[in-house]
Automatic annotation (TrEMBL):
Keywords annotated in UniProt: Lipoprotein, Signal
Domain of life, source organism: Bacteria
Range of residues in the leader sequence: 1-19
Pfam families in alphabetical order: LolA_3 (PF19574)
Protein name in UniProt: Outer membrane lipoprotein carrier protein LolA
Length: 196
């Protein structure tokens, strides 16, 4: 009886049983109607001694798309949706990457990373999640031939939203995106409503 009780207590205390799952992570990240805030992106190219730093604002509407408004070092506004990446020229959306092979997969990956679509990510990566809903880290190791050619690994971390994405690429380039001043469920401005 004592052994059975000890085994039961150990089983109930096992972190594996109570661990934060990728399905719970997806639910957490897809809960808000939208996520808005500021971003800083550092891209360290193997060929350059200093990282390229960009910054701006973003609006993410899960399952719809992303509005990426870079303000530094120059202004450019991109819209990322399942139908492609478009650039705002001041009066209309244009497609700067028309006809580029592989763009659809890149778009899907980026939206899956930010929107917490773990089912989509699992098709291309092995996922290892650690932490809790309040502070988690998701390690992605490529499992398809295509993703193995591009990435060594990807690390995403956050809480109720994604706070940081680190991309370690095969050719030696590294990108770190950090998200701050993040708000969820805030009404969208007219431009974001029309764009997304």
């Amino acid at each position: 009886m004592k052994k059975t009780l000890t085994a039961l207590v150990l089983t109930l205390a096992s972190p594996a049983l109570w661990a934060f799952s990728t399905a719970e992570l997806a639910q957490t990240l897809q809960k808000p109607s939208n996520v808005q805030g500021a971003f800083t992106q550092q891209r360290q190219l193997k060929s350059l001694s200093k990282p390229m730093v960009t910054g701006g604002k973003f609006v993410l509407v899960p399952k719809k798309g992303l509005l990426w408004q870079m303000q530094k070092p120059f202004e450019t506004t991109l819209r990322v949706r399942s139908d492609g990446i478009m650039q705002w020229n001041g009066s209309a959306w244009t497609n700067p990457n028309q006809g580029k092979f592989g763009q659809t997969q890149q778009i899907k990956l980026f939206l899956d990373l930010l929107g917490g679509n773990t089912q989509g990510l699992e098709k291309q990566f092995n996922l290892a999640l650690s932490g809790s809903e309040k502070q988690w880290t998701l390690n992605l190791t490529p499992k398809t031939a295509v993703t193995r050619q591009i990435f060594n690994h990807i690390v995403i971390s956050g809480d109720s939203v994604v706070r940081k994405i680190e991309l370690d690429e095969k050719q030696g380039d590294k990108t770190v995106m950090q998200f701050r001043e993040v708000q969820t469920g805030k009404p969208l401005d007219d431009f974001a409503k029309k764009a997304l």
